């Protein structure tokens, strides 16, 4: 399996994978236009040149990003594809200096295995004001919010700790 940033020829298979999950109510649908507009945020997993999974990292603020549209082809489930995509997105968040990454999901166990912890949805106003207000599930949201600290958080915490104990000579 090879992970890479999405290119225009990946959008069609990504669209169909997301649509199959959306019809079952697992993901919100995405238009092809929104996928093209946001493809620079998308990571794809390919096997033998075919897209077998994807996910995107959407930065919402100076210290918060979201894993979005994480999907894996049915024949790839349980093979580590989803986890590999999540880890790639976490590395990307770290390189951008983002300290926390969250996901709104039904797959709590999967995200726990990836190091995420449950968090109250209302603790993420960036998400609520940006996306949730236009969601058809707003009043009856049944997704779970999960969050994980990135290595950028650990690095920044370490720097803050060291600087708080610095002595002047």
Automatic annotation (TrEMBL):
It comes from the Bacteria. GO terms for molecular function: N-acetyltransferase activity. InterPro entries: Acyl_CoA_acyltransferase (IPR016181), GNAT_dom (IPR000182), NSI-like (IPR045039). Keywords: Acyltransferase, Transferase. Residues 1-142 form the N-acetyltransferase domain. One of its GO terms (cellular component) is cytoplasm. PANTHER family: ACYL-COA N-ACYLTRANSFERASE, GCN5-RELATED N-ACETYLTRANSFERASE 2, CHLOROPLASTIC. This is GNAT family N-acetyltransferase. It comes from Bacillus solimangrovi.
């Amino acid at each position: 399996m090879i992970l890479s940033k999405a290119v225009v020829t990946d959008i069609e298979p990504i669209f169909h994978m997301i649509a199959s999950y959306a019809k079952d109510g697992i993901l919100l649908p995405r238009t092809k236009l929104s996928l093209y507009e946001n493809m620079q945020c998308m990571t794809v997993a390919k096997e033998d040149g075919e897209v077998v999974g994807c996910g995107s990292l959407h930065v919402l603020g100076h210290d918060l990003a979201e894993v979005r549209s994480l999907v894996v082809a049915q024949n790839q489930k349980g093979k580590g594809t989803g986890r590999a995509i999540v880890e790639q997105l976490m590395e990307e968040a770290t390189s951008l200096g983002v300290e926390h990454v969250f996901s709104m999901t039904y797959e709590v166990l999967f995200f726990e295995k990836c190091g995420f912890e449950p968090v109250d949805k209302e603790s993420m106003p960036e998400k609520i004001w940006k996306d949730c207000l236009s969601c058809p599930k707003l009043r009856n949201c049944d997704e779970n919010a999960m969050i994980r600290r990135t290595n950028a958080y650990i690095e920044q915490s370490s720097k803050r700790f060291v600087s708080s104990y610095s002595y002047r000579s």
